[in-house]
Amino acid sequence: MHGVLGSCRLPASHRDYQRGWFPLSEASSDQNGISADPTAANNGGYGVAIDVGTSSIWSRLVRLEDDQVLDTLVVANPQQQHGADITSRLGSAASDAGIRAALHAEVIDTMNTSIGRLCADAGIAVGEVKEIVAVGNSAMYAFMLDVDPAPLCGTPFNLKGAEDYFGPAKAFGVNPPEARLFIPKPIFGFVGADALADILLVDMAGSSEIELIVDVGTNCEMALGNRDKILVASSPAGPAYEDSHMSFGLSATEGAIYQARLDGERFEYSVVGDGEPKGICGSGLIDIIAEMRASGWVDEGGRLLREGPIVIAAGDNPVTVSQHDIRSFQLVKASVHAAISVLQKKFGSDELGRMLITGTFGSYINLDNARVLKMFPDLPNERIEVVVDAACQGAVLMLGEAHRRSLDGVHAKIRHVALPLNKNFQDEFIRLMAI
């Protein structure tokens, strides 16, 4: 398994999803509509499943004859040079045709490079790849297909008329050109096909229990449901943890503090890459604020009770956390948890069997500290699973004609909830600002 190119290693916690992950040939077809018969789709050759994320692009090489995952690769999304978050990239692409073209070219080039590296390391020719599935959020869908992203820049924030693409890879310059390329459409608004992949992975459409998926990236997508119905929504998340909203915000790349513990008056911490600390990623911020809350440095309302900013890592350029950083965290965690609460009210039950946390943000998350800060519904750790690349694993389940046909049955159970139009969202948001 590869590490992140030029950014960070894979977290030690990385693994395949334990309950929902299975070879395609062993999938059940009871409730979720996914056929156990791979039919002619798996008649030899190789497939590649890709999750195009805002920060990282994950790829898995699959041998189609026996559905064996041979290798996994994760690389940084080069589009970050146009903005760390979705909103900035969309705005630039909508107003500048050159940037739109660059965003399209960068994602296609990275997909091709990833496919080439996976094949080279497996000792196979790129031409042996017969099928490619690429999922992503709604913005990444627009950039992959080079469609006008302007509808995502204003209400109702939806790519009206978006359709699944299934056809030759050469139509978008993806290699090998003769391969079949499948890019599923977004569900609605900012809830993309990556969320659909998450839903497939946990078999939510076949579950008797109510399950929750929280995919935390620069945009947080969530799904709540079971075999009866599935509700989805999205809420901004990552920017307030990892970029200009924080004094020393950094994604989970080299130099990011990803774990921290308060020892008396000083913080001890772990850094991605084991080098000098350059900033703090989301999981590190959670640890720091939880430790300050437990030690009485921050009150329930999020007010810093000590003179700030607080130095986390001393040095020539000290890494600090300020009152502004704490407020930014509160705003985002309240938004995400309030969105979950709205989905539960809309579903008609606050019962919850299991929760999956995924996305780069979740790679190093300390569940106990997240519980201290009331980030998610209160579940015991044994009913929570953290999987960094759930969407890529779910994309593997879209390889094969029979599985693509079955997606209509899953889509039929999904309903999008527009949070700005929900009367309960603001009340829940205010209630959940507390830490």
Main attributes of the structure:
435 residues, alpha/beta, Nucleotidyltransferase, domain 5, single chain, six-stranded mixed beta sheet
Give your account of this protein's structure.
The chain has about 425 residues and is α/β, with parallel strands linked by helices. It has a domain at about 25-205: Domain of unknown function (DUF4445) (Nucleotidyltransferase, domain 5), CATH 3.30.420. The protein has helices at about 85-95, 95-120, 140-145, 195-200, 240, 280-295, 325-345, 365-370, 390-395, 400-410, 425-430, and strands spanning about 45-50, 55-65, 70-75, 130-135, 165-170, 180-185, 210-215, 220-225, 230-235, 255-265, 265-270, 280, 310-315, 320, 355-360, 385, 415. The strands form four sheets. Strands 3-2-1-4-6-5 form a six-stranded mixed β-sheet, with helices on both faces. The longest helix is centred in the N-terminal third of the chain and has 26 residues, at about 95-120. The radius of gyration is 21 Å and the shape is globular.
